Amino acid sequence: MNASFSIPNPDVILIGSGVMSANLAALLKCLDPRLKIQVYEATEEIAQEASNGWNNAGTGHAGICELSYTPFREPDGSVKVDNAVKIFEQFEQSRQFWSYAVASGMVDKPSEFINPVPHLSFVHGTEQVDFLEARHAGMAAHHFFSEMEYTTDRTTIASWAPLLTEGRGDVPIAATKMDGGTDVNFGAISRKLLLWLAAQEGCGVATGHRVVDLERVLAGWRLSIRDLATGEIRHNTAKFVFIGAGGGSLPLLQKAGIPEARGLGGFPIGGQWLICENPDIVTRHQAKVYGQALAAAPTMAVPHLDTRVLDGKKTLLFGPFAAWTTKFLHRKGRWSDLPVSIKPDNLATLVKIGLTNIDLVKYLVQQGTQSMADRMEVLHVFYPAAQAEDWKLIDAGIRVQAIKKTDGEAGIVHYGTEVVTDAGRTISALLGASPGASVSVHIVFEVIKQCFPHLLQSLKGRDRIKAMIPTYDVDIKRAENAAFFREVHQKASETLGLS
Ligand SMILES: Cc1cc2nc3c(=O)[nH]c(=O)nc-3n(C[C@H](O)[C@H](O)[C@H](O)COP(=O)(O)OP(=O)(O)OC[C@H]3O[C@@H](n4cnc5c(N)ncnc54)[C@H](O)[C@@H]3O)c2cc1C
Prior knowledge:
Blueprint: E1 12-15, H1 19-31, E2 37-40, H2 82-103, E3 114-116, E4 119-124, H3 126-140, E5 149-151, H4 154-160, E6 173-178, E7 182-184, H5 186-198, E8 203-206, E9 209-217, E10 220-227, E11 233-238, E12 240-243, H6 249-256, E13 265-276, H7 279-282, E14 288-290, E15 304-310, E16 313-323, H8 337-341, H9 344-356, H10 358-368, H11 372-382, E17 392-405, E18 411-414, E19 417-421, E20 427-432, H12 440-451, H13 454-457, H14 459-468, H15 482-495
Parallel strand pairs: 1-2, 1-12, 2-8, 4-14, 12-20
Antiparallel strand pairs: 3-7, 4-6, 5-6, 9-10, 10-11, 13-16, 13-17, 14-15, 15-16, 17-18, 19-20
Helix pairs in contact: 1-5, 1-12, 2-12, 2-15
The structure holds flavin-adenine dinucleotide.
């Protein structure tokens, strides 16, 4: 790939080479092979920020193990599972598109980006055990989760994940397990898709190029791009721009100055992991184990003990722990990112966030002042026999939580993802982080529906999308479509080597 290769006046420019831009660029090129597409990336390599394997947990979020999607009990004691069903369906679109990419030869070696890892939920204490049993009843009743197992039996839990029971006292415990879970290297799939794109006619991927300004012009948007090797500023124009710059999206959106972005703010939360590379421990754990949120922790900070497979090597990862930061990007961020993002139109919202989210502020202060002993105490909830010498603390990525006004009133911290598109459908930006990379195909497919509806309307377009995401026009949540869902799911599992 020529790092400075740039197509003049392409149809589409994507800013950033993370999983969002990579999927959008690949989907668009598959839908219309004549499209000219240019990607600009500030770092020297593709997908080095949030999508990089070390900067996220790599959980293929499918609602299986994350208790945060099913937090409440209904008055009758049952647990509502709609949100888990929704996330599963969205992740299914990623599996299908990536399986198409493998089957059609766009990308190779799926084990370099996706691997089967059982997903477990684990709780302790009578109240939580009771909750998990009710959750399991709700989940297993849906065909997405019919294979989910539940147990309170220690020997069974020890056979699923021995570290959970080693050295544990007599408190009641329970777990659910589904073997259909995955560990995903989102950086690896982004690289593979963008290398494919760079080899297509009329497409370019330029790394080491930072977009520094955007200006609306008659033909769409004129971008100013700094070549970071030479310092030279270049310009390029496109009819449509996707700002998939992760933490860098908000500043670019503010530069674009579209009315839809007024009042939006961003609040960065750094992440840290404890990692273990001791082979005696790593080989004894093959699961992603999610627990309950710690008091006042935001949903994305629910702790988990994870098997990771990165660059062919298996490690264990525990966290995330939150860390204070004012940077919006892990590698190319600046300490001034947060202060510079504060504008007259979002100042009031940000102040209100601070005043109305005291628990969140307290949580961040508590996290920021934690010692290794404090972190080990949290790890002991999952792995009571863990020894500090086997674990080290590393920095993970940064999530910039989108902050927006609700009905013009108090601001809210938005933990989900927020796609902001202008009225003319010439620019779209992605803000926020959760559930993030796993549902990237679903998110960018929504961008295509909104901004490129013509690509889906023709017979050819419909055939193409059906080949890439066979369930795109079928409500696979419904029981009458369960057989179709199983057939497509199984086929994708086989192609991706997950069976
Ligand atoms: C601690 C943590 C754990 C997570 N765990 C999970 C998980 O288990 N599962 C999951 O699905 N999701 C997880 N996520 C979320 C997931 O990592 C993100 O949602 C996803 O990677 C975002 O992808 P992106 O393409 O939007 O951003 P990024 O991957 O950050 O890509 C943005 C790119 O834009 C580039 N860029 C920025 N500004 C400019 C500019 N001006 N010009 C050119 N390029 C620019 C950056 O260098 C970067 O490469 C986690 C996130 C964190 C922080």
